[in-house]
Design brief:
Two copies of one chain form a homodimer.
Chain A (H helix, E strand, L loop, with lengths): L1 H12 L3 H26 L2 H21 L1 H7 L3 H11 L4 H29 L4 H22 L3 H24 L6 H25 L5 H27 L16 H10 L2 H11 L14 H26 L6 H30 L6 H21 L16 H29 L4 H25 L7 H30 L6 E2 L4 E2 L8 H12 L3
Antiparallel strand pairs in A: 1-2
Helix pairs in contact in A: 1-2, 3-4, 3-5, 3-9, 5-9, 6-8, 6-9, 6-12, 7-8, 10-11, 10-12, 10-13, 10-14, 11-13, 12-13, 13-18, 14-15, 14-18, 15-17, 16-17, 17-18
C-alpha cells in the first residue's frame, strides 16, 4: 500500500495519464506477486486453509457430479455448495459459530414458515398473496430491527440473517409450489451435509483454534510490552544523541511494542467470542475462560497508555541534562527491568499454564522502588526538610508519618514471607493481607519520591519520567490481578519455587461463580 | 449484559437450577423489552431502516406473487429475494459496496464459468466430471488464498466470496443442465433487480450516509475531548475531596469523554471505506477526502493517550497539597481552557466547513503558556538560579539562551500577525514561518517551565501534571495539522475573522496529489 501511494504520487506529478497507467500495469505483476508471497510467509496456516477450502468444495461438488449421490439428493445439492462457500472460515470457532447459526436459523425459519403457510392455507388465492406479503413485511422489519440489539448482533447476527433468508424463500415459494415440505426437507438435508463437511474439514484436518490465537496473542503482547519498557528506559538514560523528536514513529522499535496492543480491542473480543464456540474443555469439563483473556487484554491496554506517555517523555522537546539523569540511572533502569520482568513472568505463567507468586513479584518491585527511593535520598544535591522529611508540618507528611509505620510492618514481614513461602502454605486470606501491605508500601514510596526528589533543580522532565515509571508500577497491579484471576479460573498448575526446589502452594476455593458466569452466553446458545 | 451478570451470580449462589431458570424466564420479557426500546431510542434511524428492509422485501416478493411479473421471471425470482436480504445494509455506502461487489463478482464468475465449460465441452463424460472437479478445487483454493491479501480483504472480500459462490454453482450445474446460458442469464437479471431495489431504497428513501456518520463522529469526539480536558483540569484544582483512586472508572465523566475515542480505529476505518463508495462530490467533482477524516481520527487517538495520562494524575495515589496547587490554579485552568477552545474551534471548523486560523489559535495557546510561565516565575517560593535562569552554565540553559532570541523575534511578530490578519493576505509561506516561530516559542516555554518550577518543594506530582499539560499543547499541533489538511482537501470555505468583520484569506495551491491519491482505491473499483 505504501508503495502504491508513492507510485500514484509520482504518477500525478509529471507523466501523462497513459504513461502512468502503463507504468502501473507493468509494475502490477511484481507487486501482486510480492504481496501474495508475503501473505503466505507471514502465516503458513493460510496456505493450508486455502487447500482445505478447495478440498471441501470438491467433496461437496461430488454430490452433484457422481451419479448415485445425485440420484439421492438431486438439484438441491446446490445448497450444499453454497453452505460450504459461506460457512467455511479460518478457525474452528468461527466455522462452528457460522455453521450452527446457519443450521438453527434455517430450522427456526422453516418452522415459522410452515406455521405461516398453515394459517394462510384456508381462504382464496388473492387473500393468500396479501397474507404472504404482509408476513414478509412484518418478519422482515422485525428481524432487521432485532439485528441492532447489541447482544444479538454480537452473537447471532448471521443466524438471524439466515433466518430471514430462509423464511422468505420458503414462504414465497409456498405460493406456487404445493409440496413445499419435501423441498424444505431436501434443502435442510443438503445444508446439514454442507455444514458437516465444513466442520469435519475444520476440526479434523489441521485445525486452527481461535483460542490458541488469543492465547498466543496475549503472551506476545505481554512480552512486547516488556521489551518496550526495557528499551524505553534504557534509551532515556542512553548517552548517545538520538532522542530528538521523531515524527516517523512507525519505525520506532518502542512504538512497535505497543502499536498492535493499542487497537487490539476488536480482535481480542472477536477471538474470545469465536473461542467460546470451540469444544475445548479443561479437566472436570470446565470451559476455558476465554472472556478472561479479553479482560487481561483490556487491563493491558489500560496499562499501555502509561507506556505511551512514558515514550512521550523520550520524544519530548524538554529534556533534563544527562548529568542529572545519570545520578539515578541505575535505580530507574532497575525499576524498569523489574517491571519488564513481572510482565515476562506473567507471559510465562500463561504460556506454561502455571500460577505465579504475586508476593515474590511484588517484593522485587518493592525492593526496586526502595532502591530508587534511597538513590533519591542519598544524592548530595538533596537537601531534605527538617527531620529527614518526617516532621508533621504538612498534611502529606502527616499521612506519610502514618504510613511509615505500616511500611516498617511490611519490611519486617517481607523477608518472612519469603522464608515462609519455601516451607509452608499461604492461605488466600494472608496473601490478600500481604498484598494490601505491599500496596501501602508502594503508596509510601510514591509520596516519598514526591517530596524527596523536589529539592534540586532542573529535574522537572525527569520528575515526570520517574513519576510515570512509578505510576506504571501501580497500574501493573490490575494486570497482575487479571492474570491471577485467569490462573484461578483456568485451573493453572500451582506455583513452584524453582530456585528453592520447594513448593509454595497457592490454594484458593474453586471460583464457581466466575465459571458459571462465563458459561452463560455459550450455554444459552447450544 | 451487566444485569445478566448480576442475575447469573445470584443464581449460582443459592437457588437451585430450576428456580434459577424460572427466574430467568420470568425476567426475560421485561429485559428484552427494555433493550429493544433502548436500541430504537438511541438512534431512530434504525427503526426507519427496519421498515425500509420490510418494504424492499415485500416489493421483491411481488415478483413472485404477481402473475404477470412471475411469468416474465419465473422461479429465479428467488435470487432477487436472496440478494435483497443479503445486500441491504444500514448506510448507502455499505449497501453500494455490497451490491457492486455482488454484481461484479457474479459477472466475473459467470464469464469464467463459461470459459471453463467451453474448454470442458469437447471430450467424454467422465473426463468432464474430473475436469470440473479440478477446476472447482483450483479456483476454490486460489480464491480462498486471495482473500487473505489485506488490500483485497479490506475492499473486495464480499465480491470474492460471491465470485466463488457463483462460479461453483454455474460450473457444477453445467454438468447436468444443457442450457446453462439461459439459467445464468435469468439469475443475473434477478440479482440485478434485487440490487436495484436495494439501491433505490437506500439512496432515495431516508438515506443514511456513512460519510455523515464519520463527519459527526469526528466532531463529537473533538468536543468530547475538549470537555474531558476542561473537567479534568478543573477537578484537579477543585477543593472538595473526591480525587481518590476510583476503580470504577466506567462511571467517570472524564473517562466517558475519551472512552469511545480510544477504540475507534475499526469504526473509523470502516466508515471511511464505506463512505468512499458513496456518490457524493464536492464542487468541481472532487471527492470528499474521507480518508483524511480517518487520519484526523488517528491523530486524535494519539493525542488522547496524553489525556489518559493526565487523567491518571487525578487518580494517582500521590497528590500535591492543595495549597501549592492553588498558586498556579488560574494559569493551569487557563491553559486547559485554551486547549479545549482549540479543540472546539477545530470541531466548529469541520462542522461549518470553513477553515480556521492556525495563527490565532497558536497565539492564544502561546499567551496561555506565557501566563503559566510568569505565574511560575512570580511566586515568592521561587528562587531562580543566577541571572534569572539565563546564565549559560548548563547545556539546557545554553540552548534556552539561543531560543530566547527567537522567542523575542516572535513576541514582536505575534501582535503584528494579529494586526496584519485583519487587513492583508497571509501566504502559505509566511504562515509556515509564523508557525515555525510559534513552535520555537513553545519549546522555550517548555524548558523554562522545566527549570523555573523546580525550585520549590512538594511539587513533583504537580510538575508531572503541568508537564503533561504542556506536552498536550505540543501534541495538539498534529491534530491541527491534520484538520488543516482536511480543510484544504475538502475545499472548506475561507476563514473569516468575525470579530474584526474583516477577512483573512488563507490561500494555498490546490493539493492535486492528495486528491488523486485519495481517488485511487475507489476509482479502481468502479
Amino acid at each position: 500500500m505504501a508503495e502504491n501511494d508513492v507510485r500514484s504520487n509520482r504518477c500525478s506529478e509529471g507523466m501523462g495519464y497513459v504513461h502512468c497507467f502503463a507504468d502501473k500495469v507493468k509494475r502490477f505483476p511484481g507487486l501482486a506477486g510480492r504481496e501474495t508471497w508475503k501473505v503466505g510467509k507471514e502465516d503458513p496456516r493460510r496456505v493450508i486453509h486455502s487447500f482445505k477450502v478447495g478440498i471441501a468444495l470438491t467433496l461437496v461438488s461430488l454430490l452433484y457430479l457422481m451419479e448415485p449421490l445425485f440420484n439421492g439428493i438431486g438439484q438441491n445439492a446446490m445448497w450444499a455448495v453454497m453452505t460450504v462457500v459461506v460457512v467455511m472460515e479460518f478457525t474452528v470457532g468461527a466455522t462452528l459459530s457460522k455453521g450452527l447459526n446457519r443450521g438453527f436459523g434455517t430450522l427456526l425459519a422453516a418452522s415459522l414458515a410452515f406455521l405461516t403457510e398453515y394459517i394462510a392455507d384456508a381462504p382464496g388465492r388473492i387473500f393468500r398473496a396479501v397474507f404472504i406479503a404482509i408476513a414478509v413485511f412484518v418478519i422482515g422489519t422485525m428481524t432487521s430491527y432485532v439485528r441492532f440489539i447489541p447482544y444479538i448482533k454480537k452473537n447471532y447476527d448471521y443466524g438471524v440473517l439466515i433466518f430471514l433468508l430462509t423464511f422468505n424463500l420458503i414462504t414465497v415459494s409456498s405460493y406456487r409450489i404445493d409440496d413445499v415440505w419435501s423441498i424444505a426437507e431436501d434443502r435442510i438435508t443438503t445444508i446439514a451435509i454442507g455444514c458437516a463437511i465444513c466442520l469435519v474439514m475444520s476440526i479434523l484436518v489441521f485445525p486452527n483454534w481461535s483460542g490458541e490465537d488469543l492465547h498466543n496473542n496475549t503472551i506476545s503482547r505481554l512480552e512486547g510490552l516488556a521489551n518496550c519498557i526495557q528499551v524505553c528506559v534504557r534509551e532515556y538514560f542512553n548517552d548517545s544523541e538520538e532522542s530528538t523528536c521523531q515524527d516517523d514513529s512507525s519505525e520506532d522499535p518502542i512504538y512497535k511494542g505497543y502499536k498492535t496492543l493499542l487497537d487490539s480491542k476488536t480482535t481480542d473480543e472477536t477471538l474470545a467470542l469465536q473461542a467460546s464456540w470451540e469444544p475445548r474443555y479443561l479437566r472436570y469439563f470446565h470451559r476455558i475462560p476465554w472472556h478472561q483473556y479479553a479482560k487481561v487484554g483490556a487491563a493491558l491496554r489500560y496499562f499501555s497508555y502509561t507506556v505511551v506517555a512514558l515514550h512521550g517523555c523520550l520524544q519530548s522537546e524538554i529534556q533534563t541534562p544527562k548529568s542529572i539523569r545519570a545520578l539515578y540511572k541505575d535505580s530507574c533502569i532497575r525499576l524498569g527491568e523489574e517491571v519488564s520482568k513481572v510482565l515476562r513472568e506473567l507471559a510465562n505463567s500463561i504460556r506454561n499454564n502455571r500460577q505465579f507468586s504475586p508476593e515474590m513479584l511484588s517484593n522485587n518491585l518493592n525492593a526496586a522502588l526502595q532502591d530508587l527511593n534511597s538513590a533519591l535520598k542519598s544524592q548530595p544535591q538533596l537537601v531534605l526538610g527538617s527531620k529527614n522529611g518526617r516532621a508533621t508540618n504538612t498534611p502529606i507528611q502527616a499521612v506519610q508519618h502514618h504510613d511509615q509505620k505500616l511500611e516498617e510492618d511490611t519490611r519486617t514481614s517481607s523477608p518472612s514471607v519469603k522464608n515462609i513461602g519455601s516451607s509452608s502454605r499461604l492461605g488466600c486470606r494472608s496473601r490478600e493481607h500481604s498484598r494490601e501491605l505491599t500496596k501501602k508500601v508502594l503508596r509510601t514510596q510514591l509520596s516519598k519520591i514526591a517530596i524527596v526528589s523536589l529539592e534540586f533543580s532542573e529535574a522537572l522532565p525527569f520528575a515526570a519520567f520517574t513519576s510515570l515509571l512509578v505510576e506504571m508500577v501501580a497500574k501493573l497491579d490490575r494486570v497482575m490481578d487479571e492474570v491471577e484471576d485467569l490462573g484461578r479460573m483456568a485451573y493453572f498448575r500451582e506455583f513452584e519455587d524453582v530456585e528453592n526446589g520447594d513448593k509454595i502452594v497457592v490454594t484458593c476455593e474453586k471460583p464457581k461463580t466466575d465459571i458459571a458466569q462465563n458459561d452463560v452466553p455459550s450455554a444459552g446458545s447450544e
